[in-house]
Structure formats: C-alpha cells, structure tokens
Amino acid sequence: MISKNIKSKIMVFLKLRNHQVWDSLNEILNNIDTSVLVKKHLELSDYKINGYWDDQDEYYEEIILPRTLEARLISSSVGIANNKRFLQMRFSLSTYNEKTSRGDSFGELLLIYNEDLEFIDENWDLDINSPFIEVKRA
Fold first, then answer.
1. How many domains would you assign to the chain?
2. Are 57 and 108 contained in the same domain?
C-alpha cells in the first residue's frame, strides 16, 4: 500500500508534468526565431569572443568564429531565481564543410534572456582545435 505522503508527492509530480507552463514554453519557442537571436548576438560582437577559457584552463585572448556558422537549437529551459524568470537556449554550432558535404560541429552556445527577451548572459563551449575557428592566445 502506498503511503499518503508518497501519493501526494506523485500527485504534485503529475500536476507539474501536465502543467500549463510546458505549453507556454512551447508556444514561446515556436514564436521566437531563435536563429535570428543567435545571428543578432554574433553580429553585435562581430563574430568574435574576447577572453575565453577552455576546459584545460588555457586562456585565449580572442576567438573569431566563421560567419558561415549555423546554429541549431538543441535544448531550452525556463528558470526562476530570486523571483526573476529567464529563458535559456542551447545551440549547436557548426559550419558547412565543402570537402565532406556536411556540417561540422565546433561547439555550443548557451544564451540566457530575461522574460522580456533582453540578453542576460552567454556561455561558450568550443572545440579550440577546430579548423573552422581562429584563435589568438594571450
């Protein structure tokens, strides 16, 4: 027999699982052209990242991204911190390789926006050894 406490936890889970917030998130994402958000973000920085630490704790003064890059939305989430709501979108970054006739991935970009779709933060995860990006060490 399932205890009353476990039943109430299951009910809360089921209510959240079927909550309207998920429909709202889908509606928001369907109405946002996420590729335009990425393109505008990259254009503002002239396709450059100033100051990047890789996962080996190597510092790079500047990274220049290819202007032909393609960004594909791979995940999204809504968060709440200190009563402030935000939207996170993670993109796979790739560029077309003429030699192989396919897109070659060279990293990911996480963009964070507030509830008014104003930019808050970014997080890059790049393959520094990719032939598609230009790196300048400090």
1. 2
2. yes
The whole-angstrom separation of Cα 75 and Cα 79 is 13
Q: What is the dihedral of CA 11, 16, 20, 26, to 10 degrees?
A: -140
Average pLDDT of the segment spanning 98-124 = 86
Contact status, residue 133 vs residue 66, Cβ threshold 8 Å: yes
Is residue 39 within 8 A of residue 114, CB to CB? The reply is: no
In terms of domains, do 48 and 27 share one?
no
Q: Are residues 48 and 94 in the same domain?
A: yes
> What percent of the chain shows pLDDT beyond 90?
49
pLDDT of residue 26: 72
Provide the pLDDT confidence category of residue 1 given band limits of 50, 70 and 90.
low
Indicate the pLDDT class of residue 43, thresholds 50, 70 and 90.
Answer: very high
Burial 3-24 (b: 16+ CB within 10 A, else e): eeeeeeeeeeeeeeeeeeeeee
Residues 5 and 39 in one domain: no
Domain that includes residue 13, residue range: 1-31
